[in-house]
Design brief:
By secondary structure, the chain is of the alpha/beta class. It has 17 helices and 20 strands. 47% of the residues are buried. The N terminus is likely disordered.
């Protein structure tokens, strides 16, 4: 069901083509049909409007469009595709912060706040409001409480400094290559301090419960309707400080079934499907060349890998892990599962990440080599039973599991594929309950040390899904977290890749392509490091 209307009725409405581009300017009431409207579909939903604590992809997409950040990631046109842009490492644009500079041997960042900005409440946007944002991130439960101390070395609120109403500074113990990226994260979005305080309680001093269903920020759009399981409607923020968006209204339709999303596209009832994993590679391939539709595809930083739990036998044996890497049938998975919408993983960091070196991996498909390593590990007398967990509904992982199952059985495993709901998979993955699983990871900050820390540092217990622990690697990560010399930092990243490849910490599979299907007339589509859409950049070509 789609809320209180049946799937059949929903698709019948879609057949009328009523959700189309409407180029006239807004002249009528809030839901008049003469508002330039972009209608999209997703298979997600919003769990919270709190940028520090959300978990769903749907929440991130909305928050990236309703909340401003201090800085933003820039995007440059893709060669040969003038309607498509992509972020580049080290390219930033102003947001709430109009300009910025480094002082104190690059240990202090000074940001000038745009003058004259106001929250929807009418209260001023100033350096005090920005400090509240950072104080909240450091002290409230959520993502930034982990990122601030670990990535940039901020452990105390007094490291965030208000110099005057329009000047905000961050004082670090050492320079940070990640600092500007941290300021661009939507998880670190600007909130109205006084509005938050109105809804705070003794048990919830940061108003996280209130923010689950309410907003208190400034951005190019504001939510005007949130009907879970049906649709979300955003409208352009009146008097917004930035360029007025072409699309004054965004209608986001919930369509949990991929077949429904395809039908809506073909009937021109929607203009785009948004969100990661929203279209399977097979269907992307089938939609190439479809009348009135465009499939856009760019290399992405999303890593898909076979996670081996090093706390469970036989995966505590490095030779077993190496054998598994030689048995990975990636040569078959890319054409038969990904249909070309992916690239072979040759390093535990993404090919689009600074410091990536694809020449270091010794692994290529070689069953003979894999069998030899299994014998050296003392396994060869009988099959080793093992469970391989995958999420239900993500077709590439379900299909890849079958290919992996066949190859692992050739080298001495007896593999049973366990299909789990997303909630069950996440719980077992975080608690170390899997033996083998197919995992995805994308680093919101495209920095190699950020990526290495969360996936492989022994202290990152919640995100280091394989329970990998290596004191030498920990030291390389720690030493390079805030290394100021780029050459030394990249040398450390190279050494880290060598260690992880030698230890076969992951079963290397593939890097996803970032792919979307849109109406052919749609321009301004851009891929940012977090891979979520910014609707205010889009327009008709």
């Amino acid at each position: 069901m789609f809320g209180n209307q049946s799937r059949r009725n929903f698709l019948k409405l879609a057949a009328s083509g009523s959700a189309m581009f409407t180029p006239d300017l807004f002249t009528g009431p809030a839901h008049a049909q003469d508002v330039p409207t972009l209608t999209v579909a997703w298979g997600a939903d919003i769990d919270s409007f709190d940028p520090a604590q959300f978990k769903s992809d749907g929440a991130y997409i909305v928050q990236a469009n309703i909340y401003d950040t201090v800085l933003g990631w820039g995007a440059e046109p893709v060669t040969g595709s003038p309607n498509l842009s992509i972020s580049k490492p080290g390219v930033f644009i102003g947001g709430i912060g109009e300009s910025w500079k480094f002082e104190n041997d690059d240990k202090t960042l000074v940001v000038k706040i745009r003058q004259g900005l106001k929250f929807p409440s009418g209260r001023p946007v100033n350096a005090q409001a920005v400090k509240y944002l950072f104080d909240r991130g450091l002290q409230s439960p959520g993502y930034m409480r982990l990122i601030f101390p670990t990535m940039i070395g901020v452990t105390q609120a007094d490291q965030f400094e208000v110099r005057d109403d329009s000047t905000f500074a961050i004082n670090l113990p050492a320079p940070s290559a990640m600092l500007l990226d941290v300021l661009a994260l939507s998880n670190n979005a600007l909130l109205d301090p006084d509005e938050i305080k109105l809804h705070a309680t003794a048990d919830d001093p940061w108003a996280a419960q209130w923010l689950k269903r309410n907003t208190a920020g400034l951005g190019p759009y504001k939510p005007v309707s949130n009907n879970p399981g049906v649709e979300v409607i955003l409208e352009a923020t009146p008097g917004y400080w930035g360029p007025a968006p072409y699309f004054r209204r965004i209608v986001i339709k919930y369509a949990s079934n991929e077949a429904d999303r395809i039908l809506l596209l073909k009937r021109k009832a929607i203009d785009m499907v948004v969100g990661p994993n929203s279209m399977s590679p097979k269907n992307l391939k089938n939609l190439e060349g479809a009348p009135g539709l465009t499939v856009v595809s760019l290399p992405d930083t999303n890593c898909n890998f076979l996670c081996m739990n090093l706390k469970k036998k036989p995966f505590d044996n490095v030779k077993v892990r190496q054998a598994i890497n030689y048995a990975m049938p990636i040569h078959a998975i890319i054409p038969n599962v990904l249909y070309g919408y992916g690239e072979q993983m040759k390093s535990p960091i993404a090919a689009q990440t600074p410091g990536y070196d694809g020449s270091l991996s010794p692994y290529k498909y070689d069953v003979g080599k894999a069998k030899s390593l299994m014998a050296e590990a003392g396994h060869g007398s009988g099959p080793i039973p093992v469970k391989l967990a995958v999420r239900v509904g993500y077709a590439p992982h379900e299909q890849a599991a079958i290919w992996i199952q066949r190859e692992l059985e050739k080298i001495g495993f007896q593999v049973s594929i366990e299909k789990e709901t997303d909630a069950t998979f996440r719980q077992l993955s975080s608690s170390g309950g899997h033996e083998l699983s197919i995992e995805s990871w994308q680093s919101w900050i495209n920095d190699p040390v950020y990526h290495l820390y969360w996936n492989f540092h022994s202290k990152a217990t919640a995100t280091n899904k394989g329970a990998y622990a290596n004191q030498v690697l920990d030291k390389i990560i720690d030493d390079n977290m805030r290394e100021a010399d780029p050459g030394k930092r990249m040398a450390g990243v190279k050494e880290a890749q060598k260690i992880l490849l030698d230890d076969a910490a992951w079963g290397l599979l593939w890097y996803d392509n970032w792919a979307r299907v849109t109406r052919s007339e749609l321009a301004g589509v851009a891929k940012y490091w977090d891979s979520f859409e910014r609707f205010n950049k889009m327009k008709l070509a």
